[in-house]
């Protein structure tokens, strides 16, 4: 009995090593423990044993039959890895599902015919495109055709389970095939793109290629049920869309109150080279079970071509399988031979059911091949001659499966011809129709939730002031917590001051202004989500949006409890189902993220796509840490509106400012964002007062604004508590964000007259206060300092109006604390020169290959030098703020 148990466990653990999963039938190494002799069972083939789940009706079986059942289950077309899972219930469930079926599905005749039809759809589409659009890149699915019946099975299973929407993401390999056969994009729309016959969206250089675009449609399934299927747009940056899909899925779950995570399900398709080669994949896997990012598990499918662009498996990874990275989650991984479509469908059923039952990710590694090179114009024989010799003469999976069904009398030749004729007719009809009347292939930017939103930016001001009573209500909530809750004693006075700041008309610091903005946005009926590596407390201990009980470690978010009556209803309704369940009806979600920028920023971008009424914010620990997410910034935030007609109001909070902390903690690289600015694609702002920040956040989701653009905010560090940056309550009760702030010294009733001004300094950010301090020390009345609070879109008309109030012969100077080759100078000079013909000289730190010096002494010297050039020499030593 012990020997048999060991033999069975050996197959459960190592059977995948001998599984016939290679699409070319090449021998695999196996494992010595799969041999009965390794367990002392040599010569025991006829001996009877109790084989547990393998024994039908609990009957004793000969060892030969047990071994045949084990090999059918674990060493045939499916190689299963699941024994690394430590959860006994999950392991037992998987064993039962695999062993009760012997690794083979029981399929009705109609189901097998349906699989054949799906293979026909996959192959005929590729063949038609190859003939009609010879030499055009399409990144064919040929060789991986079983992807279509696999995904089709997901759709049918989802419909049966009551799922309302599938959110999908994939790269370019096979994407057009999936778009038409799974997502529902019409042949005519795809053929229009092949003909390049629709160009309205690309008049200004926008519009991405056909195998990058997304799409969505309502699919009517064979059961008669409907299912919304959406495919996210993606760039060629492989795996970058995964996080976007997950974030979008989470937001959709929230909007339909899918608290069990069973009505909106994500599907992510990977490539074998990218799933193991791209680090963002590990970042995304790490999000799987975290409270702030949990979506109930994703269905992962690897279209495993056994090759990258030209890189083979030996050069692509150190691990045995490309999916080994997924073992970090203790989830099942199924390796399945793409040449056995029935096994593929069987695995799809098991994978879907596992995800729905255990709310965890699951991976299917579909081993197949790529009939052509990387694209249809690439010669693969240059780099993989042996592999492509085998591919050249290999019949398609459609051919081999059709021959099998014909031999088994599952289908007739006449029925086969009818399927082919019907599909051929549909393709031809769509092709000629698209040539005659092109069909707009551009998807709608959003569905019902985005009605009334356009892409047109406007400087028209919107009122963002808030009544004092509303501010007082939010302030009171900030300083309130349950009687049984014990905050840290050092936080209590901070929160108490915030609680009375409105009633006592206290100066409002940065963190208080943000909390008041968030609270009033919630009272307006919107939802706010903030994430980042230290966002609950704030990197600089300035936010305290979430409190920890010093005795229990429990979490309390004051702004989720502005309305106590509502909060009581929520707790009564959902009871003690965990910290997230207690805030299901709340409006403020703030999470400390894992140490990731790439995946998290992508996730939040995806979340922001769900609705224009979401204020979604991601905060960097320090601004330059966003560098790690540059792909998301370049490929999604900056360009998605033009490329894919997708709108987002995502906010990036990037701490920025020179306080002598060295190159890693000073510069959020505003110049990089400004280089990406065009077509009114995003907003780049550097507010200098807490009131400006308050109005800026409230402006972002204001219903009077009929557009949504990403907002990049360079937030301060040393100014977070500085008196000079604080605002009065009445600055929050009226007005709106000001893109440009004129010098208050020269305002009506000010201390100086504009006619005396000889130099106007333009600047952004914290350097304004350094300039003001030096000017006051030297008592200069001939120097004005104008703040550009929104660098892009630059309000040139307002700037011109302000400058026109100064003498004509005034000297214009741009002053920045960043090195001359960084910061906003190049952007400002180019724009003002082209718009007005203004010559704008620059005073700054000298050009540098690194953002800042690591020496506080050198920092102070540089600060003094450019302040002297801008305003004049000081007799006092420069004090560096730390």
Can you tell me about this structure?
The protein is α/β, with parallel strands linked by helices and 882 residues long. The chain starts with a helix and ends in a 12-residue tail after the last helix.
Euclidean distance between termini CA atoms: 71 Å
Strand content: 5-15%
Structural class comes to alpha/beta
Helical residue percent? 25-40%
Uncertain spans:
570-585
Q: How would the global form be characterised? A: elongated
Q: Characterize the biggest β-sheet.
A: 8 strands, mixed
In DSSP terms, counting alpha (H) and pi (I) runs of 4 or more, how many helices?
A: 28
Short key terms for the protein model shown above:
single chain; 882 residues; alpha/beta; eight-stranded mixed β-sheet; 28 helices; elongated
Chart the SSEs and their pairings.
Elements: H1 2-14, E1 48-49, E2 61-62, H2 63-74, E3 78-81, H3 88-99, H4 109-132, H5 147-160, E4 165-169, H6 175-183, H7 187-194, E5 215-220, E6 226-231, H8 241-255, E7 264-271, H9 272-277, H10 279-287, E8 299-304, H11 313-316, E9 333-337, H12 341-358, E10 362-367, H13 385-392, H14 397-407, H15 413-436, H16 468-478, H17 492-499, H18 510-523, E11 527-532, E12 547-548, E13 555-556, H19 564-574, E14 588-592, H20 598-608, E15 614-619, H21 630-637, H22 640-644, E16 651-655, H23 670-675, E17 683-685, H24 690-700, E18 711-715, E19 740-741, E20 759-763, H25 767-778, E21 783-788, E22 790-792, H26 796-803, E23 811-819, H27 825-836, E24 841-845, H28 856-870
Parallel strand pairs: 4-6, 4-7, 7-8, 8-10, 9-10, 11-14, 11-15, 15-16, 16-18, 17-18, 20-21, 20-23, 23-24
Antiparallel strand pairs: 1-2, 3-9, 5-6, 12-13, 17-22, 19-21
């Amino acid at each position: 009995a012990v020997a048999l148990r060991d033999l069975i466990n050996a197959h459960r653990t190592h059977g995948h090593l001998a599984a016939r999963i290679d699409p070319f039938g090449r021998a695999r190494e196996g494992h010595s423990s799969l041999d009965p002799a390794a367990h002392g069972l040599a010569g025991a083939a006829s001996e009877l044993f109790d084989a547990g789940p393998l024994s039908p009706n609990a009957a004793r079986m000969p060892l030969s039959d047990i071994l045949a059942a084990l090999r059918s289950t674990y060493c045939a077309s499916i190689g299963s890895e699941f024994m690394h899972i430590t959860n006994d219930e999950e392991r037992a469930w998987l064993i039962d599902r695999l062993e009760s079926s012997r690794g083979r599905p029981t399929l009705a005749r109609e189901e097998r015919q349906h699989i054949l039809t799906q293979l026909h759809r996959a192959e005929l589409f590729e063949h038609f495109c190859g003939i009609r659009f010879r030499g055009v890149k399409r990144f064919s699915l040929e060789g991986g055709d079983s992807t279509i019946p696999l995904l089709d099975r997901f759709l049918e299973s989802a419909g049966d389970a009551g799922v309302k929407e599938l959110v999908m993401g994939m790269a370019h390999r096979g994407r057009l095939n999936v778009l038409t056969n799974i997502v529902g994009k019409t042949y005519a729309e795809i053929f229009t793109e092949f003909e390049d016959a629709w160009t309205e969206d690309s008049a200004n250089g926008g519009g991405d290629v056909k195998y990058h675009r997304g799409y969505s449609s309502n699919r009517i399934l064979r059961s008669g049920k409907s299912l919304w299927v959406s495919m996210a747009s993606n760039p060629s940056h492989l795996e970058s869309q995964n996080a976007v899909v997950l974030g979008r899925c989470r937001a959709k779950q929230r909007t339909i109150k899918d608290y069990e995570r069973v009505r909106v399900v994500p599907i992510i398709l990977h490539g074998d080279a990218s799933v193991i080669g791209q680090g963002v994949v590990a970042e995304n896997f790490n999000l799987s079970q975290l409270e702030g990012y949990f979506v109930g598990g994703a269905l992962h499918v690897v279209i495993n071509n056994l090759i990258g662009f030209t890189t083979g498996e030996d050069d692509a990874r150190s691990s045995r399988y490309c999916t080994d990275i997924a073992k970090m989650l203790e989830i099942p991984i199924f390796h399945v031979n793409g040449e056995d479509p029935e096994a593929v469908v069987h695995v799809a059923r098991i994978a879907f059911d596992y995800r729905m039952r255990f709310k965890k990710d699951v991976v299917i590694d579909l081993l197949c091949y790529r009939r052509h090179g990387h694209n249809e114009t690439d010669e693969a024989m240059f780099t993989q001659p042996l592999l492509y010799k085998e591919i050249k003469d290999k019949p398609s999976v459609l051919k081999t499966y059709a021959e099998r069904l014909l031999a088994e009398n599952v289908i007739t030749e006449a029925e086969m011809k009818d399927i082919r004729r019907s599909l051929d007719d549909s393709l031809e009809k769509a092709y000629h129709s698209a040539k005659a009347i092109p069909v707009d292939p551009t998807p709608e930017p959003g569905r019902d939730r985005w009605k009334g939103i356009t892409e047109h930016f406007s400087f028209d001001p919107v009122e963002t002031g808030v009544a004092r009573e509303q501010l007082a209500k939010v302030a009171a909530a900030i300083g309130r917590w349950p009687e049984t809750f014990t905050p840290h004693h050092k936080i209590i006075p901070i929160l108490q001051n915030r609680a009375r700041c409105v009633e006592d008309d206290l100066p409002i610091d940065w963190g208080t202004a943000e909390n008041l903005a968030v609270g009033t946005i919630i009272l307006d009926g919107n939802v706010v989500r903030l994430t980042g590596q230290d966002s609950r407390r704030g990197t600089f201990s300035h936010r305290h949006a979430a409190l920890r009980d010093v005795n229990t470690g429990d979490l309390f978010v004051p702004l989720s409890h502005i309305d106590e009556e509502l909060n009581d209803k929520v707790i009564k309704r959902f009871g003690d189902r965990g910290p997230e369940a207690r805030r299901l009806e709340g409006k403020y979600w703030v999470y400390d993220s894992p140490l990731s920028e790439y995946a998290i920023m992508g996730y939040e971008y995806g979340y922001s796509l769900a609705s224009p009424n979401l204020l979604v914010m991601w905060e960097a620990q320090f601004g330059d840490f966003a560098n790690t997410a540059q792909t998301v910034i370049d490929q999604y935030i900056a360009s998605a509106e033009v490329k894919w007609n997708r709108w987002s109001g995502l906010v990036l909070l990037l701490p920025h400012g020179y306080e002598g902390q060295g190159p890693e903690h000073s510069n959020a690289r505003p110049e990089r964002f400004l280089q990406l600015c065009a077509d009114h694609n995003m907003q780049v702002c550097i507010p200098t007062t807490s009131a400006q920040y308050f109005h800026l956040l409230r402006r972002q989701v204001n219903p009077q604004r009929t557009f949504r653009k990403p907002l990049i905010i360079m937030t301060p560090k040393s100014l977070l508590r500085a008196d000079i940056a604080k605002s009065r309550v009445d600055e929050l009760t009226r007005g709106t964000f000001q893109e440009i702030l004129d010098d208050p010294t020269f305002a009506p009733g000010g201390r100086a007259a504009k006619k005396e001004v000889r130099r106007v300094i333009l600047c952004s950010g914290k350097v304004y206060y350094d300039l003001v301090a030096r000017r006051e020390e030297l008592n200069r009345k001939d120097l004005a300092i104008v703040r550009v609070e929104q660098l892009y879109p630059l309000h040139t008309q307002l700037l011109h109006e302000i400058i026109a109030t100064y003498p004509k012969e005034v000297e214009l100077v741009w002053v920045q604390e960043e090195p001359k080759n960084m910061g906003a100078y190049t952007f400002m000079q180019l724009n003002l020169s082209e718009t007005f013909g203004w010559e704008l000289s620059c005073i700054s730190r000298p050009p540098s290959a690194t953002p800042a010096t690591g020496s506080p002494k050198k920092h102070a010297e540089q600060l003094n030098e450019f302040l002297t050039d801008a305003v004049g020499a000081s007799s006092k030593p420069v004090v560096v703020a730390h």
